[in-house]
Design brief:
The complex is a heterodimer of chains A (about 290) and B (about 130). Chain A has about 290 residues and is of the alpha+beta class. Chain A has helices spanning about 40-50, 85-90, 115-120, 130-135, 145-150, 160-165, 170, 180-190, 195-205, 220, 230-245; strands spanning about 10-15, 25-35, 70-75, 75-80, 95, 105, 110.
Chain lengths: ~290, ~130
């Protein structure tokens, strides 16, 4: 297309509105937005806010698909507003609504707190018994490419909530944690630096585990980062079943140690040593207790 | 009521494998005998449900054990699966406990009844064909 052309098409944004202070129930409101080629949904919402209705509410931050804040239902499919181009998904009407399976705070803003609490219950952090080394590290923990490959894909999660909105089990079963917390649970379950397999498997043997997942696969279909939560959940089930049948060697594995001496290359030439502490007592400061 | 989900799920999978193998055997012996000609299981002619063939199989201890295994695997797989489906309707914890309790009683009761029937069948077959 000629770069000097700036043809616009009028697209109707049909947005689900709800202000709990004023409205008894949600309703749809239409806005006609001039859309040019390449314009994402997020830019359309900004246009509405600047030219038509400043009260329209949504979450957004990075504008580039890395923060997950602008996840919403776009033409009945969860997605990110900043990375979805309007003309790719609509030619006359674009339907926008807040993510389902969450309470609505206002307009397109869902209450993600339940997801975050569920996520926290999965212990989404490395647990080791060498606390001194963790708080004041002397070297890197050794991890091979194969070790990294086991969890790297699942670490790309941006906590947007699209998978939770798409999951049919989250829609019906209030006890099911959902694809996002479970994927992060698996991410740490198979991280070779983690030493808490026994504690994690106790959590996952309860209702906080993956057992209600029926592998619908919708979570993976809508994930904007290619995390594939459905795969993580099935791999998690396999790990736990193999462990129960005593066929899994992970239960006997210690957490990865420091880089072996022969692999340490030392400080590269030309890189200076860190400067000394200038604040009295700073050398003995420890980070606060995370628990 | 504690729910050791990993354990239950693992046995659900094991039960499905047991059913796959033993039901496969059932189909081969009872329904495909004309094609497979399994004389070892139907030595008195091609019709598996002829009295002589039925009595022959029922007298074998191995068949009694297989019947009980199929019953146990089928009951557990079916009842646990049904419980999972019912739990997805989001019942209250009290209703969940009732469902689990009812299925436990049904499952154990039917297992006992079916085991008695399998053993009684064998005893009767042995007595009648002496």
């Amino acid at each position: 297309m000629n770069q000097t052309e700036n043809k616009t098409t009028n697209i109707v944004f049909r947005v689900r509105r709800f202000d709990p202070a004023k409205d008894r129930e949600p309703y749809f409101e239409d806005f006609t937005v001039p859309v040019s080629n390449g314009m994402p949904v997020l830019d359309g919402l900004w246009w509405i806010k600047e030219h038509v209705d400043p009260t329209l509410a949504w979450r957004a931050s990075c504008r580039m698909g890395v923060c997950g804040a602008c996840a919403m239902l776009i033409n009945n499919r969860p997605g990110l507003a900043c990375t979805t181009q309007i003309l790719n998904v609509a030619d006359k009407v674009l339907l926008l609504a807040p993510l389902p399976n969450f309470d609505i705070i206002r307009d397109l803003v869902p209450d993600l707190q339940p997801m975050m609490e569920s996520h926290r219950k999965q212990m989404p952090w490395i647990v080791r018994d060498d606390e001194e080394e963790m708080l004041m590290p002397t070297d890197q923990y050794w991890q091979s490419h194969e070790d990294l490959d086991k969890y790297l894909q699942f670490s790309y999660c941006i906590k947007c909530g699209a998978c939770m909105a798409a999951c049919p089990v989250v829609a019906t079963d209030s006890l099911f944690p959902g694809p996002q917390p479970l994927t992060q649970g698996y991410r740490y379950l198979v991280d070779s630096r983690d030493g808490a397999f026994k504690e994690r498997k106790k959590i996952l043997s309860s209702e906080l585990g993956p057992w209600s997942c029926h592998y619908a696969g919708e979570c993976s279909a809508v994930c904007p980062k290619g995390v594939d939560p459905a795969r993580a959940i099935q791999l998690m089930k396999r790990e736990l079943v193999l462990d129960y049948l005593r066929l899994n060697k992970r239960r006997y594995k210690k957490a990865a140690g420091l880089l072996p001496p022969e692999k340490r290359k030392g400080r590269r030439e030309g890189i200076p040593e860190p400067p000394p502490f200038t604040v009295e007592g700073a050398a003995s400061i420890r980070p606060p207790d995370r628990t | 009521m504690r729910m050791p989900h990993t354990k239950l799920w693992s046995w659900h999978i094991i039960a499905s494998v047991v059913l796959l193998v033993l039901l496969g055997l059932h189909i081969a012996i009872m329904h495909l005998n004309d094609i497979l000609n399994l004389a070892g299981f139907n030595p008195y002619g091609a019709n598996p449900i002829d009295w002589e063939n039925v009595a022959f199989r029922t007298k074998q201890l191995s068949f009694t054990i297989i019947y009980i295994l199929v019953l146990a695997a089928g009951l557990f797989h079916g009842l646990y699966g049904t419980q999972t489906i019912l739990f997805e309707l989001n019942p209250s914890p009290r209703v969940r406990n009732w469902i689990t309790g009812l299925f436990l009683i049904m499952g154990i009761g039917l297992l006992v009844l079916g085991t008695w029937a399998a053993i009684a069948g064998r005893t009767t077959a042995l007595a009648l064909t002496r």
